[in-house]
Amino acid sequence: MLPITLSALTCPGGRRKVQATTLLNIPIICPQPRRRVSTRRPGGKPAHMHRVYKIFEVMPNGSPQRVTVVSGLEFAKVAIQDLAKHTSNECSVVDATTHQVIIQMNVARAKLRATRRIFQIAYDVDLGLRRAELLRSRGYGVISVMGNQAAKLLLSSIQHYGLFIVGHAAPEETRREIVDWLRAEYPKIKILALNPPNQQILRADYNVRQNGPENWLPIVTQVLANSLDSSASSNASTSGSG
To answer: Does the pLDDT value for residue 178 go beyond 70?
Structure first.
């Protein structure tokens, strides 16, 4: 049972709380959904703290089973970490509004090695969704989050990514701050910044004007192909040393 209490949280605008008991005995709070998550809500709390997330466990037959529903990204992270401690099955957190997978745990190493993975920090829900779906259609594994705080929270339990993508729909200072943080924390991982006109993020490895995907998809292909080659070479060297 998870040692957390969510009943202290309230929905924005004084809306009535809706609570229920889940399989893990976690109260559920259902706030009003919001499309833009790069801004803060009244009281100064980031919008991702109010979003609703579903926790899934993938059964041995491959079917996902919903375990619980929580409000707030921090609680979602705690819930999946607790679940992953009690099962060897793959676990995931899915945004209830966008249906995007934002956290995965207990993923088989062979599956991780075979998937070229991208972590996207977006600032506009619709643009982030379209970009993630395009990348998935090209065979990439994508974890997409909204805003810097959500990115830092999830990357504190990073597995492996071949590329970071930083969206354009935020002030330059906000985007520069996350690029500086990524560069300090993960210096070996390439950063692709998608920029508005007349703006670049100097510490990013690649700066591309946000326009059609034809401007940035070739960079993604090149970076992740090189990442996959490096990983394969490393695995071959390790096998040979044994």
So the answer is: yes
